[in-house]
């Protein structure tokens, strides 16, 4: 493939692969915690770190990582202490981060690379070999922590109060999650840019939620989706000459819309199929009961009736009773009381 | 066991520096099944939250399972069923995953759920009558069933002390009966039960002792039968189960207790 002939594209694709895998792995927990915009905020804070790196002529990736992790810890401490002031404190930190970054970058001596756009919107083709090494280290650490602490992070994200009552170290786990977000932000900085980082954390998770049944499935599916949109977006941006970050995010959003439409259509089809069957049996000559002559068949929490080889289940609606086909049904109807 | 399951001495409990519960003395022995009754805003939930370490002990002494509440190391010995109407969060999760969380507190920080933990989870889910829904997303369950999932989460920890906040409120009759049966079994196995409720009726077969909380103080402590002679139908002075018009108090962040920021 032509795209793989260039060293810079090889590095770009490697970086996008790692970002695509890691960002949703952390993002799923943020969505569960209803803190979807934390990544955005830490992206703002990371910009100050970038500026400090530029000013002091150290690698911006390292200083951005330090700034974002410090910001993450600070946010969790503020959240743990206050209730009403937390929101405002977050806003102060976030805007302080981006304002600090812009002002500090403007102070950089002339002739130095201070391309703000590259950090805000990503500049994947400038990824150096050293960057790839740092990214790989971050990827390994983030995935290892998610593997090791995933169940606890889920517990705290799902029901913080319960987690506290049964003695899980809630503050520590929250700080770990925030630090993971900070690391992911820095990892994603080159690929999608600080302003679009949250999208790559959140949108794959949003798609996966529509399709998965369990948290674990959502996590794996989100990582898979992130990987595919990230690598294909980067490849597409090479051919179309568009910025990689925007291309990746648009691709992810397109997938989200497609899946949303798909699930809506399949839901509507299932409802229509149900209605069609209901019409067939609306004119049922009698209501099934003890002595109707049809064999009763216990089915979960209700009784079906064997009607010429297929099973009829009563479905009572406001308009009366009709009979659903339960020959193919595997799950009992939603909302019924369980057995005990 | 020598120390009582719960011992409060002149305890004041509240939020910030505002005491909601004041000067309460209370001892609950191991194996007791206690209803904490009271109207909205009486302080009964705050009392329970103080025991759980979710509200601040502002004065006096609160001992849980023989240790001061802040210094109890093995909090996994306490089971907690919060007052929540649904379980489903933003991301789908199965019954197995939600109940599995109840097991984590017993495992330290890094240990993963093993086969023994998984079977404890399955047992707890079966105990609340949802054994065939283990792999289903909690969002597909009815409200009463979701509440039973929260009970299973607490049971999965095999707790010595089980604290429940309004487990029967807004739950259909079938689920209430299922819950009463579960609690009867748990109580028979020796677990101490503390159930915060505004009406003990549905669980009157299980709970034997009643504590009524009124304006942050205990106004009755005795047999449940004495607290509500005929199901709370007759309201007479001293009947702690009587319904009062709800008063607004700051200790009732009712709807938002699960996800405060």
From TrEMBL, chain A:
InterPro entries: ABC_BtuC-like, ABC_TroCD. Keywords: Membrane, Transmembrane, Transmembrane helix, Transport. It comes from the Bacteria. It is a multi-pass membrane protein. Pfam families: ABC-3. Residues 270-308 are annotated as: Disordered. The chain crosses the membrane at residues 12-31, 51-75, 87-108, 128-150, 162-185, 191-212, 219-239, 245-268. Its main location: membrane. One of its GO terms (biological process) is response to zinc ion. Residues 277-291, 299-308 have a biased composition (Basic and acidic residues). GO terms for cellular component: ATP-binding cassette (ABC) transporter complex. Coiled coil: none annotated. It is found in: Cell membrane; Membrane. Belongs to the ABC-3 integral membrane protein family. PANTHER family: ABC-TRANSPORTER METAL-BINDING PROTEIN, METAL TRANSPORT SYSTEM MEMBRANE PROTEIN TM_0125-RELATED. This is Metal ABC transporter permease. It comes from Geodermatophilus sabuli.
Automatic annotation (TrEMBL), chain B:
This is ATP-binding cassette domain-containing protein. Keywords: ATP-binding, Nucleotide-binding, Transport. One of its GO terms (molecular function) is ATP binding. Residues 6-240 form the ABC transporter domain. Residues 222-261 are annotated as: Disordered. It comes from Geodermatophilus sabuli. The keyword Transport applies. Pfam families: ABC_tran (PF00005). The keyword Transport applies. Belongs to the ABC transporter superfamily.
